[in-house]
Each structure stands twice: as structure tokens, then as C-alpha cells.
Write a structure and sequence with these properties.
With 133 residues, this protein is an alpha+beta fold. It is built from 3 helices and 7 strands, in the order βααββββββα.
């Protein structure tokens, strides 16, 4: 497996879910401690976690409110450095809920895939639990 893919249903509008990926305050409600985001193609992003780890990359696609993609990696991690993998999120309406599909591609080895799979499962679980605003 070289791609992590998750599909889930969120009880919130497309716009509310999209906002949780492109606004720093909304992102850190479910992932990380602090964030700096420039959600435009070519714009940088940086997400600091409470344990000292820092994820960073560049937005590649920003198509509100249905699609966003960015490069992904970890500062000071030569195995998965910033820009070494990509994450794409697509959003689709289904009645009153949003169907989110996340694809994370380009991770270098089974250990990185396992760690990132566990991380996405945890944080997407946090996202699903947020109120639908």
C-alpha cells in the first residue's frame, strides 16, 4: 500500500468542513496546537503539534468548497521531509452531510504509512466529532 485513503461522513456543510482545512483557528480545533496557513496555490502551511513535531508543505489545489490538496512532510525528519508526499481532500454533499475523501500519497516506506494511517484515523475522528458549524 502506497496510498492512505479514508472516506467518512461529517454532519456539517461543505463550507464548514472546507473551512476546517484552510483557516488556522478551525484547523487547530481538531488537529495540532497552532497553524500558519496561506490557502492559495503555492501558499505555505505549517502545523505545530504539542509534542514538538511540525508538519509543513505547500498548498497545490484550493477549490472551495469541494477540493484542496497540499504537499506534506515533517520538519527535521529526513525520511518524510516537507513536500515529500501529498494529501488531497475532496468533499461532496449527501443530503445534510458532507462526504470527505482523503488521499495521502507518496510516503516512503511501510513504517511511515502505518504511522500516518494511525494519525489520520485519530485526527479525522476528532474532525467528525466537531459540531457542524
Amino acid at each position: 500500500m502506497t496510498t492512505i485513503e479514508r472516506t467518512l461522513r461529517i454532519d456539517a456543510s461543505l463550507e464548514a468542513v472546507f473551512r476546517r482545512f484552510v483557516e488556522a483557528d478551525a484547523l487547530t480545533e481538531w488537529m495540532g496546537e497552532s497553524a500558519t496557513l496561506d490557502p492559495t496555490p503555492g501558499g505555505q502551511w505549517r502545523l505545530e503539534y504539542g509534542d514538538g513535531n511540525i508538519a509543513a508543505g505547500t498548498f497545490t489545489i484550493v477549490d472551495p468548497p469541494t477540493r484542496i490538496a497540499w504537499t506534506w512532510g515533517w520538519e527535521e525528519n529526513p525520511d518524510v521531509p516537507p513536500g515529500s508526499s501529498t494529501v488531497e481532500v475532496t468533499l461532496a454533499p449527501d443530503g445534510d452531510v458532507t462526504v470527505l475523501t482523503l488521499r495521502h500519497e507518496g510516503l516512503p516506506d511501510p513504517g511511515a504509512i502505518k504511522n500516518h494511517s494511525e494519525g489520520w484515523d485519530h485526527f479525522l475522528g476528532e474532525l467528525v466529532e466537531l459540531p457542524g458549524r
